[in-house]
Amino acid sequence: MEKTLKKQGKEIAGVIMEPIELGHGILPKEGYMKAVRELTEKYNVLLIFDEVKTLFRVGLSGAQGYLKVTPDLFVCSKAMGGGLPISAYGGKKEVVELISQGKVPAMGTYNANPLSLAGAMANIEVLEKDGGKAYEHMYRIGEKLMKGIGKIFEELNVKAIVKGLPCQFVTCFTEMSADEINNYRDWSKAAGSAPEKGEKFRIELLQRGVFCSYPDWHLSTVHSDSDVEKTLKAVEDSLQM
Ligand SMILES: Cc1ncc(COP(=O)(O)O)c(C=O)c1O
Question: What residues contact 201, with CB distance under 8 A and at least 6 apart?
Answer without folding.
Answer: 171, 173, 214, 238, 239
